[in-house]
Structure formats: C-alpha cells, structure tokens
C-alpha cells in the first residue's frame, strides 16, 4: 500500500486527485492540505510515501514546504512529486533544488499520474518527458548555478555515461539498453552516483549534471 498526501490550494483540484487516487486499491490517501504549512504538518503526523505538491500556494508555497519536508527527520521516507503548469518553470527548478523527487504537468493523464506515484514511492525520480527539455534549458541558463566539478572528477568513465543518461531523463531500463548494460549494473552505478555526488535521488543527479557542466542542453 502506497500512502499519499494531496496538497493544492484549490479544493476542486484536491477533490479531483482524491477521486482518482481512491479508485486505485494500492493507494491510500492519508490527508489533504491547502498550503505548504499544512502540508508540512500533515507529513510530520502521517509520514506519507508520496506528496502530490502544488507550487503556488498561500502562507507557505510548495518550494519551501518541499525543503522543510525532505530535511525533516520525521519525514525521512517521504518523497515529493511536484505538479505544475508550463508557466512555472523557474519555480519547479527551485523545488527540485529543494529536494523534490520529480514533476509532472497537472494535465497528465490519470494512468500516468498513478504510475508516477508508484515510481516515486519506489525511490526513483520521475522527470516528465513532456517538460524535461524545457526545464533543462531553463535550469542550465539560471545565473545562480554553482559548479561542483571537483566531485565529478572522481567519477569513472562509465559513471559519467550513466549520469549523462540520467540527465536525459532515461529510466534504468532505457539506460541499460542504450549503454548495453545489465539492469542490475545500471542500478549499482546510479547508487554509486547518489553516494559520490551526495544527491538525494535521480532528480538531484539531473541537476548536478547540468550544474557541473557535464551535461549541456541540446539546441
């Protein structure tokens, strides 16, 4: 059973997500919140596996709420999935920096949202292919990026290849096929990358790849 918290300042949106999630027998909604402060309080009480997090909310926005949740020892197992629209690119980048495990568009098909919750709960980040390219371009252009090339210098050539594949939004299965590696070997490399680069999850690895200059947006 995957436990989920739904966070959005619009009651109608929350209700829509709740109806969808209640239809899935392997998902349990542990609560709803209309702002970031409520979301943080809810997560401290219920420790959901996944939080569906809006970005623009009163009192405390989704960015600050995400940062507080992922750094709170009481919420150590909770993952945050940002739900966004196209006009919130910079805010979503900030949310990923704050520790979110991925993002989807709010108009994502229901079955894809359910799949995303499963992926996030399993510990893998999910970067929607629909918006990854836009996000990467925006992220790479931000003036406040901080290169961390010293850590990248400690990567093996194979680890760099895997990191670049992760930065392209590829899943472990897709990386295995592209690099002619076993699935288990890819998982091992990703695990080593998370440790070496002090990253929380795959979303953080994507950011690292562009911050360090190892990955460059395609033109």
Automatic annotation (TrEMBL):
Keyword field contains Flavoprotein: no
Alphabetized GO MF terms: DNA binding
SUPFAM superfamilies: C-terminal effector domain of the bipartite response regulators, CheY-like
Keyword DNA-binding: yes
Domain HTH luxR-type: 148-213
Modified residue annotations for 4-aspartylphosphate: 54
One Pfam family linked to the record: GerE
InterPro entries assigned to the protein according to its UniProt record, in alphabetical order: CheY-like_superfamily (IPR011006), NreC/VraR/RcsB-like_REC (IPR058245), Sig_transdc_resp-reg_C-effctor (IPR016032), Sig_transdc_resp-reg_receiver (IPR001789), Tscrpt_reg_LuxR_C (IPR000792), WalR-like (IPR039420)
GO biological process, one term: regulation of DNA-templated transcription
UniProt keyword annotations, A-Z: DNA-binding, Phosphoprotein, Transcription, Transcription regulation
Annotated protein name in UniProt: LuxR family two component transcriptional regulator
Organism, as annotated: Williamsia limnetica
């Amino acid at each position: 059973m995957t436990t989920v918290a739904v966070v959005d300042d619009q009651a109608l949106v929350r209700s829509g997500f709740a109806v969808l999630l209640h239809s899935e027998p392997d998902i349990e909604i542990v609560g709803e919140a209309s702002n970031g402060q409520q979301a943080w309080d809810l997560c401290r009480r219920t420790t959901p596996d996944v939080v569906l997090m809006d970005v623009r909310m009163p009192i405390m926005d989704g960015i600050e709420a995400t940062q507080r949740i992922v750094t709170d020892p009481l919420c150590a197992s909770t993952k945050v999935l940002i739900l966004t629209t196209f006009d919130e690119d910079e805010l979503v980048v900030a949310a990923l920096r704050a520790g979110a495990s991925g993002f989807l568009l709010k108009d994502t098909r229901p079955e894809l949202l359910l799949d995303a919750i499963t992926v996030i709960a399993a510990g893998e980040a999910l970067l929607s292919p629909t918006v990854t390219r836009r996000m990467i371009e925006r992220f790479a252009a931000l003036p406040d990026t901080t290169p961390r090339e010293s850590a990248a210098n400690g990567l093996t050539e194979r680890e760099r290849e895997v990191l670049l594949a992760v930065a392209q939004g590829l899943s472990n299965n897709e990386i295995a096929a592209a690099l002619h590696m076993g699935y288990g070997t890819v998982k091992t490399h990703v695990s080593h990358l998370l440790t070496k680069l002090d990253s929380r999850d795959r979303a953080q690895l994507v950011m690292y790849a562009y911050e360090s200059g190892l990955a460059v947006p395609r033109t």
